[in-house]
Amino acid sequence: MKKPLLLSLAAAALIVTNLSAEATMYERFEAMEREMSQLKQEIATLKAQKESTQDEEAEDDEKPRAVASDDSAEDKEVVASADEAQEEESDEDEEHIPSTDDRLFDIEESIAELNRNTSGSHLKFQVDYRFAIENMSYEMADGTKAENDAFMTNRLWIDMGYKATNNLSFIGQLAYNKAFGARSGASDPATSSFESFDWIANENAYDDKIRVRSAYFLWQDQEFFGLDIPWTFSIGRRPSTNGALVNLRDDDHASSPIGHAINVEFDGLSSQFTLNKEWGTSVKLCLGRGMSNAAPKFLSTPYAEASTENTNIDLAGLIFTPYEDRQYKISSMYYYASNLIDAVDPMDYTQGFDTVGGLHTGVAYASVKGIGDGWSDFLDYTTVFASFAFSKTDPKDDQGMLGSDLGESKTGTSFWVGTQFPSLISDYGKWGVEYNHGSKHWRSMTYGEDTNIGSKLAARGDAYEVYFTEYLVDDILSLQLRYTYIDYEYTGSNGFFGNTSGYATEIYDGMTNDSMHVDKAQDIRLYIRYKY
Asked: Model's pTM, two decimal places?
């Protein structure tokens, strides 16, 4: 028996593919896909043959050797000699015939080589395009109104990644997000500086630039310095938006931060350790920098610390998940952010920011994916969750935060409940209902939340949301209709951290001369999304 001819063909295909410079990129990728398809088919065949052989051997072992009771000793010796000869012949053949495991290993190595050699382009790409149209309306504290009947946006994400080895990968995402045409209010000098703020640069529908939303390398290993502890390490532009629980309504994979408290773009590093595989117990350390204290390039001391400007904004956090399986998950997060900022003058944002102090934040949630154990198809695919969070300010001695006196600390709380269940009109769609409430001094860092009227999870008041997601063509083309309603009880929900834009004061009926603060807001959004 000879080694499969397909392996030789695969090796030849690699050489030919790499030398065929005249072939188009599409033709070269297509040829590699055909090769991988053939190799994967042979793997499936070999595995099936291996399982069949193992079953036959098991049956043979269970059957007793039939030897007649009147066999002579000579006959038994002949049988034994024949068995020994067969074993010797088998051993001799095995020296020349590769085992099924060896053949599987060789083929899998060939597939890995095909994955690595993509005709000079090692990155793999995925496109995620979304068109959305929104009807938004606001009722201000003084009773005046603002609205936009049809705000249309284009959002494009270009995902890219490459796994260089079994342990090391690169992952990145480019993003484009803008309103249709030119946006007339985007050049107001008093507020335009916030449009491209680093924490929300790609979540904000602003200009026609393509920006880096995330870019980092990821190291994964099953042992940590010889210990049986799977761990990861990564550093770069973090995937810190659309985190856990928020990802349900956004129809995305969850990033690591819990979305109740963090939903902003960040630069930093993280490292996760799985402490108990059976329980899914893990701990993850996260460090990030939200602002760098550095002088401009063309000063006499470029990039040195600029003492007259805002200092570094740093964040340190810990995500602890005591239990996680396919159905149940309990997770928690704590972080501290230092040197947070607010505008110097709420009426003139061009005057810059003041450093006001730090912020402690904690959150814990529980989720259940599938209610009961096979009670019904509907409950099997229903998810419910509940989350509780708190924030506690740590102001500088000469600063107030969120409406406090100088140096006074304030604590705020928020809770959030929701459910997602199978569609009522199709086989694969998903519907969802959510509610959250925040207290007077609640402060989250959720400026990047995908809700154009403002972060609902930052609301100091009540927020209600209903949505349904339907798939039009497999999981490639989808449609979502979403309704969000926010009833603010206090001002400053979407501000910064000090006593200017973050100031918390009660909103009540009959307030006069207050056209700056939103009392109620609602958003009806329809999108069509292509993801492949």
From this structure: 0.76
